[in-house]
Amino acid sequence: MTGDVEAVRSAVITWFADHARALPWRDAATTPWGVLVSEIMLQQTPAARVEAPWRDWMLRWPTPRDLAEAPMDEVLRAWGRLGYPRRALRLREAAATIVDLHGGVVPDDESALLALPGVGAYTAAAVRAFAFGRRSLVLDVNVRRVLARVADGVEHPARHETAAERRAAMAWVPDGDAEAAAWSAAAMELGATVCTARSPECRACPVAGQCAWLAAGRPAWQGPARVAQPWEGTDRQCRGRIMGALRGSREPVPLAEFAWSDEDQLARCVASLVSDGLAVATPAGLSLPR
User: Fold this and answer.
1) Does pTM top 0.85 for this prediction?
2) pLDDT level of residue 218 (50, 70, 90 thresholds)
3) Secondary structure letter of residue 25 according to DSSP
4) Residues 6, 39, 51, 165: which is the catalytic one?
């Protein structure tokens, strides 16, 4: 490792010790199960939206066995407006797998974590780092952005992660477990709160002096246009509207009660929710699975 890399890592870890947000899943008393729940909830969802549902979830289902035995409709109601509700299905399936194959204890082995429903490479690495303090490659969009700017001098990482990027990012991970876990948490926090996508606060950055992008004058992104996903009128909005109505009713909801102007789109979204296992069609209307 070069001195610059070691200096950057040290500065970011030191900064994190003083500036880390007091997120509930970072509490020392949080169990590996609590960390896994947080990581599933945080997929494509900001931390501010996750805090309250995570607290409620952990009070209600503090262990994998508790969730594995919970009715599916109650799980989906508790998921609320977090979005992408298939994550709730996968999390309940993961809980059942943990009970069946691991005695109700979240495994720390990477291959065992990857075998859990809804757990991919990032989530497995994050659980190993943040629940067990193990060395792993925690490479989310925030860490990718920090490394793209500091090391590569570009405003954004490529749209899709590559093997070469993973190899380069792994070179930044310290060899020791504790130091590696600290780097992963710190680099992620820096990207989430300071080195943000749209309005980076370079004056508050602990490694501004070593940042290749800042040294180059913060050149604008030259890659493919980064277009925000639309929401209004999309299938995602329609599906969300349907799920909201189902969560709010203990009885089947007649299709005529779903307020959506495009009947073909409504029918398509209803069919997709049924296919995904998020809704059940009955003669009286649509309901949550039990």
Assistant:
1) yes
2) very high
3) G
4) 39
